[in-house]
Write a structure and sequence with these properties.
Helix content: 40-55%
Largest sheet: 5 strands, mixed
Radius of gyration: 23 Å
Mean pLDDT: 93
Number of helices: 18
Distance between the termini: 38 Å
Number of strands: 7
Structural class: alpha/beta
Shape: globular
Amino acid sequence: MTTFTQTDYENFAAKFGVDLAEVKPKSHEERIRTLESVLSDESVPYPIPHQQRQPYLDAAIAKQPFSIGPFGSAQVDLHKFRNEQYYEQYTFEEHLSWACLVAEQQRTKHQYACQPYLEGEKLFEIGGGVIPDYYTLNARIFQQTNWQLATVTEIIPAELFFTCHSQRYFPVTTFMRALGTDYLQEPDIGHDVAGHVATFTIPQVADVMRNHGEARNLIYAERDRQIAEAEGDLHAIAGIVKDADDLLAFAGRIYWFTVEFGLVLEGCDAKAFGAGILSSPGETVYSIDSQEPNRILIDPSDDADLFRIANTDYLISEFQKTYFVSKNFTLLGSLTPERILEASLKAMKLPDFTWREVAPGDQVIDVGAVMMSPNEKYYRLMAGQELDECLTRTAAHNLSLYARGFDVELLSAFRVPPPQVPSVALQWYRLNKEGAL
């Protein structure tokens, strides 16, 4: 564990323009007074029910850790992933990490984030020198959006993640990344709160999040129906469960390239709204200014563009290699649960693209330095060249798909069908690699 000195703290603060005197959480009494004022606010879209205010305030007064927002009638069971925020246990170093990250985020957000996102940050007062108290933050989120927080221990399974969304709960972690860290693969407070919370005030983005939850419900309702019909056939049940999980993974790609890593046109310029982008100052600049990634314009209401997203694989371990730029937020609102499910069902039966490719028919804004043609991954694989996991996984998926055969008429779902896997690659796969990738 890294141990920092007072001089280190002063250097970090100076680097990010943070006043160390502001890295001081309010006392318990001060936080209670703030919470009491927030709870009594009636001039909000969703006033907190009177009968729920006092029990909520009493729990905060008694220093009970925050766990799951209790307002409204919705409920969610987090099982073993349930967590709690013990606010008084945060260290000075963790508060300073928040202050430095948020200060750097603010500088990049105000240059690269879309205007509706920035308005959301003002509303929720995302910023300052200390980690937010979830009691107050949850109340404010509910009052403005009818969403609430549910604290979790770590990255949770996709099924549970989208179950939370279907009930308008957003899972948030309670740990803060190490001081001085920009990019993080796993979500922390810097991602969940400083990245996501402002997006709830963009109605179409909040709807997409909720609709992914509803799509999850449709997927697993059908899974449960099929399991009941299987009448205890364990082999059949295993296949049914796998298909449902795979289907949710394809739906998750739509979520990834919009809610997490989406760009949107604002005038003639691409601006960021994805929480995965805006929680990382480095990726915020990279997503707009870097010459490395591809940027592709999409109309989310167009089925061909939706299939393009659902059939694009990616990695979470580094900055994205392709960004999809929505023409506007209104079109993003077309992503209903039914369209998400339909696109995911078809995507499962279609060839995938890697996150480095520019595909036939793409409306290309920028061709990045990492760009690859759709067939390049096969030739690189045959030549034994090192590929990232996304390229390897996509090549294996497509070779397997073509080797076993599929309904090629389904390719008409794309705006322009991708080129067929080269026959030499398919022959190589059958002779040398089938079942091994």
